[in-house]
Amino acid sequence: MHKSIRRMLETPLSLLTNEEECTMLSFDNGVTQQEVEELVWEEENINELAEECKIRLISHFAQYRKFFNSKPQSVEHVLYKYDEQPQPIRGVEKIIGESITVIVCFAKYWSKHWGGDVVGYERSEPVEVVASYPGRIIVSEGENWIKVGQPTVEAKTELHYLQFKLSI
To answer: Model pTM?
Structure first.
């Protein structure tokens, strides 16, 4: 393992903060309920799905059109469960240009009482909370940490998220 990666993994979360403000925006119906219900994760190419979500995001919201030529990176499908502790997601490090982290909720249906809230952190403190909702696209700008909370044991359906990063 590369030294810098090992150092980052060994450094406590509280020390991996920056001075940037946490900015999280959410967009409902980014993915339709019918599309969520028809999705079969075992058969889906998640890279193509991330590209489709990127196209929807940039075609409906002018502030993200600058990411048109950006290819989704670090694409991941995550199934959040009540008996597993979720891992935080670090935003894209700013080297040159701008970056965003995009997460898309693919739960078939979801109640806010089942947990699974998306929390944005600033200087190790939670400052933004967005509820999970089917078809919702959540965008975190910059390199702040975000985390999808653990669903409760009462959840009646699985909480699926597609996560990826875009940079220019």
So the answer is: 0.81
